[in-house]
Amino acid sequence: MKNWRMKDIVVMAALAVVFGIVYLLFLPVNVVMMGLIGPIGTDIIFGVWFLVSIVAAYIIQKPGVALVSETIAGVVEVLIGSSVGPIVILSAVVQGLGAEAAFALTRYRSYHVLVLMGAGIGAAITSFIWGYFRGGFVALDPSYVVLMLVVRIISGAVISGLIGKAISEALAKTGTLTSFPLGKTYRQRKAG
Amino acid sequence: MHHINPSIKAGTVTIAAIVIAFLFDPLALLLYIGWTIAVTLLFGKVQIKKYLLYLLPFTLFAVGMLVSTLLFAKTPENPSITQQFLLWELPRETVQDALALAIRVFSYSTLSLLFVLTTDKVAFILSLIQQCRVSPKLAYGILAGYRFLPLLKDELTTIRSAHLIRGAKTKTSRFSRYKQYTIPLLASAIRKAERTAIAMESKGFTGERDRTFYRTYNTSWTDWIFAAVMLGAIALCIIVSKSFQ
C-alpha cells in the first residue's frame, strides 16, 4: 500500500462509488431472482458484486487493489444509506480477499484473462463460505448447496472475470487510462 | 444515539450481527429485533414513518427468504410431524428453519437501520481515521470519491444530451444501451478522480498521520456502555427465551 499514488486511491474510490451504486441497484434484482427461482437465483448474478475488484485491479495493477477497492465499495454502500448496513463492509472484505488471493498467486505479474476469471472464482468461494454461516445455508438440502456453489463460481468467472475485463478494456480504449498500467499496455499494443 | 462514536457503533452492530449468525432460536431473535427497534426509535429520535419506509425493502427481502427456504429446504428428519402454515401442511422442521432464517434476515436489517439512520456519513469516515487508524490518504480518498455521487447524475444527463445532439441513436437492445452509458460515465469519473487527486496534492495534502483535524472524535465511557448494553441484550434475549420454553 506504500507505493500507491493519491491518484490510484481517488480513482479506486471513484470506481467504487460507481460500482457501489450498481451493487445497490442489483439488490432488488436479487430479491426478484430469489423469489422466482429460490436462493440459487442470488448465485446466478452474484458475480456482479465482485466486479470492482477485477476492474480496479486490472486497471491499477498494484498489490492490495482488489481487496481495498471492494472494501471501499462496501463502505460506499453503507454511506449511500440503504443496503445491509456496516456488515456489508465485512462481506466486501471477505470477497475482496478471495479476489486478491488470485492476483497474489501470480505475484501481481500476470493479468491474463484466466487470472481475472480466477479472481472472480476466488471471490465466489470466500463469499460462499461467509454466506454459508451468515445466510444459514445449513437449513438447505446439501446437494442444493453444492449446486449453489457451482453456479456462484461460474457467475464469478463469467460476470466478474469476463465482463470485468471487457469493461476495463473498453475504458482503456477511451484513452482515460494513459497514466495507469492498463492504459500503457493498451497503447503499446496499438503502436506495436 | 447520534453522539455515540461512529466507529464503536459500527463495531457493535457488526459484532452483534456475527453473534446472531450463530443463533437459531426464533423467539430470542424476535426479542432482540424488538429491542433494536425500540433503541432506534427512542434514543435515535427517528420518526416512525421514516423508519417503516426504510424497513419496507428489507421486509420484502425477508419474505423472499422465507418463501424460498420453504420451497428448497433439506429433507426433514421427521417428515410425519407436520404443522399448519397459513394454507399448507408442511413438516414442522422446515417451517421452523424457514421462520428462523427470515427472522434472522430481519434482525440484520434492524441492526443496519440502527446504524444508518443515526450516523453522519462524514463523521463515520473521520472517526475511522481517528479511532481505527485508517490511513488518512485512503480515508480522504474515499471522501473525495464519495463527493462524485451527486455529480454522476448530472454527468449522465450530459452524456445523454451529447448523444442526442450528435444524433447518436439510442441502442435498442438493453445490454448495448447499458454499455453506451456506463463506459463514458466511468471514463469521466476516472478523469475527475485524477484531477481531484492532483488538486489535493497541489494543495499540500500528504496523507501523513500526524495531521490535525478540524473535527475531532473521541471515545468516552458512554460509547462503551452502549456497546456493552447492545451485546448484553443478546444474552438477555436468549435467557428470557429459554425460560419460556
TrEMBL record, chain A:
The chain crosses the membrane at residues 12-33, 40-60, 72-99, 111-132, 144-163. Pfam families: ABC_cobalt (PF09819). This is Thiamine permease. The keyword Acetylation does not apply. InterPro entries: ABC_thiamin-permease_prd. Keywords: Membrane, Transmembrane, Transmembrane helix.
